[in-house]
Amino acid sequence: MPVFLSIPLFPSGVRGDSLTVLQAPEFLSFQKGDWPLSGEKIPDLVALTMGFSVEEDLSWPGLQAGPLFQRPRANVLVVVRGVDSLDLPQSVASYPLENRLYMLGKANAVFEDLPVTLQQIRARLSQDGSVLTSFPLNSLSRNAEADLLFLSEVQVLHDITALLQRHRHLAKDNSPDLYSLELSGLEELSRLYGKDSPQYRDATSILASVLQKFGEDMYRLYGNSAAVEVVTVKTFEAPLTRKSRSILESKQISNPGSPYNLAYKYNFEYAVIFNIVLWLMIVLVLAVIAIAYNLWNMDPGYDSIIYRMTNQKIRMD
To answer: What's the Cα-to-Cα distance from 97 to each of 71, 84, 304, rounded to whole Å?
Structure first.
């Protein structure tokens, strides 16, 4: 059964700064270079890494086509809001990101026990195995709500890998898994304290180390066959855009039934119907050729039961 995990509050449009590939299998080739990628194409990029088809070709040189029958068993996409970039010690490649990014999804029932309310988060951080004992808080406080939001997101990353450790069958089945996480704790800290505050600097340093470990843990849990990407988002704006048409555009109408020069509406069943009709026609043509050949070379005296019965009756008379 495939695992789908998404923890954004709502589908959102964001203006991002960079896409960093933390982990990737050896057979998944990410080329290093300064090639910008549109945020709208990130779902297509994730789909291509998993071997799925996309509606439009992704003409982006950062990802090279890998083996057809060797694909990652999981893809983990983490979006971090409120930061230009993170000082990640080790990564496969990093690319500038532009335009908008959309996230949406659903969670597997295994992850329903993760804390979501403020009361559950406070209780989880006070239990054994809390991340509060893993690193020094420095200027961060477990009593401030903004600090608590950031710490809860760090705790969720830790709990996801812990759950997969206990439910290893999810990482060992034949179905690909997709994880999509959105972290907004840094954005709240920057609004409350400012980006020059010690709280923001400490949180940025903590999150970079936590994400690095999270990527390594997910990579190992899937047997070194998982891709982990981190998207950093500085601002959370969705500027309005308007599509325009050139006055020099050709007046040739591709769809006679539409006065606006619109193409025919594409039907996703076209490929299936085309293959059915094509191979059915080929089979029928071959059948007609075979029947015609056998009729042309048929001996009426031996191959036809009508002539055979007639000859026997004549001999008896």
So the answer is: 24, 11, 76
Question: Checking DSSP bridges between strand 29-30 and strand 63-64, what pairing results, if any?
Answer: antiparallel
Instruction: State the Cα–Cα distance between residues 213 and 300, nearest whole angstrom.
Output: 83
CB 261: neighbour CB atoms within 10 A?
13
Which residues neighbour 205 within 8 Å (Cβ) at sequence distance 6 or greater?
87
Phi/psi of residue 248, nearest 5 degrees: -90, 10
Query: At 283, is the secondary structure helix, strand, or coil?
Result: helix
Distance CA 87, CA 110 (A): 32
Contacts for 99 with CB less than 8 Å, ≥ 6 apart:
15, 38, 39, 40
Tell me how many degrees the CA angle 194-200-206 measures, rounded to the nearest 5: 170
Burial of 68 (0-12, 13-18, 19+ CB in 10 A): exposed
133 close to 103: Cβ distance less than 8 angstroms:
no
The helix (H) or strand (E) run that includes residue 67 is: none
In 100-150, which ranges are E strands?
100-101
Q: What is the dihedral of CA 97, 102, 106, 108, to 10 degrees?
A: 0
Under 8 Å between Cβ of 210 and 87: no
What's 32's DSSP letter? Answer: P
Question: For residue 51, what pLDDT band results from cuts at 50, 70 and 90?
Answer: confident
73, 224 contact by CB (below 8 A)? no
Assign 14 to helix, strand or coil.
strand
Burial class (CB in 10 A: 0-12, 13-18, 19+), 78: buried
pTM of the predicted model as reported, rounded to 2 decimal places: 0.69
More confident residue, 128 or 73: 73
Query: For 52, phi and psi rounded to 5 degrees?
Result: -90, 160
DSSP reduced 3-state for 311: helix
The CA radius of gyration of the chain, in Å to the nearest whole number, is: 30
